[in-house]
Amino acid sequence: MTDLTPTPGRPGLHITKPSPNVPAQGSAVCHCGASATATGDDQVRLLAQGWAANHGSAHTAGGAA
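The chain above was modelled as a monomer; its predicted structure follows.
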């Protein structure tokens, strides 16, 4: 399986939760240089919301690439 962890060369958001009894884990790297990690369902949910609101496609919504 390919390593899906985001890097500066391959930015993105990666979230894992292998089973309902294991806390979620997430990592994010944006092409703007921001990065973050989170552990726990609530923290990962906040990481994903922050990514959607401030990074990733939020940077390209105004036409900037």
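Residues 49 and 55 are 10 Å apart (CA to CA).
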